[in-house]
Design brief:
By secondary structure, the chain is of the alpha/beta class. The chain is built from 10 helices and 5 strands, in the order E-H-E-H-H-E-H-E-H-H-H-E-H-H-H.
């Protein structure tokens, strides 16, 4: 079968954290930038693709395979995180119209400082020098433009970063429901005690 869902958003908007949160659910397996391009992602047969050693262009490929192996035979819903998915959303949707899409966003240009910090970090080999928050704003404009074309890219679930990591588990429960998996209190409890706690939200509150 084809991918069930994709996770995306302007880089530095919380796509990694959302992926970790989704992977807390035993029925969900979300890879991390596993596929090199839109064609590969939209035509991949999953879960078999997550055992294909030919996908090895980045460290995330092996990380994703480890996630898959830990859930093999248990997970029933398979996805991939790709922050810049919106740039090719239309061509992807044309090939896989049943794929669900989850976009995380940070209010008040919350990604800006993170872009600036990485642009100024001379030791960061994975970020272009000069790629500051201004360019993140341009990416946000492109993302919004693409999402406005509902016929072209399909339905999208929008997840507010602040709502997900600073309020409660409602946003994560909504994402679980959107993906069609059963409620799982253990996943929500783990989320409360890890992601919410690390964000300064007291466990159990």
């Amino acid at each position: 079968m084809s991918l069930d869902f994709v996770v995306f958003g302007v880089p530095r908007s919380g796509t990694d954290a959302l992926t970790r949160a989704l992977n807390l659910h035993p029925q969900i397996m979300c890879a991390m930038e596993y596929f090199p391009d839109a064609i590969a992602a939209s035509t991949a047969i999953v879960p078999e693709a997550f055992e294909d050693e030919r996908y090895s262009y980045s460290p995330n490929c092996e990380k994703s395979r480890l996630i898959y192996r830990s859930k093999k035979g248990i997970a029933t819903v398979f996805g991939n995180k790709d922050p810049r998915f919106s740039l090719y959303a239309e061509s992807f949707h044309a090939r896989n119209q049943n794929c669900r899409k989850i976009c995380i966003y940070r209010p008040k240009l919350g990604f800006w400082q993170s872009w600036d910090a990485r642009a100024n970090d001379q030791d960061d080999e994975h970020w272009e020098r000069g790629q500051t928050g201004f360019f993140g704003m341009l990416e946000l404009m492109c993302l919004l433009n693409n999402l406005s074309d509902v016929d072209g890219c399909g339905e999208v679930l929008l997840v507010n970063y602040d709502g997900l990591f600073f309020d409660d588990t409602t946003a994560l429960e909504t994402a679980f429901n959107y993906l069609g998996v059963e409620p799982n209190e253990q996943a929500l409890d783990t989320f409360r005690n890890t992601e919410l706690a690390s964000a300064g939200h007291p466990p159990g509150s």
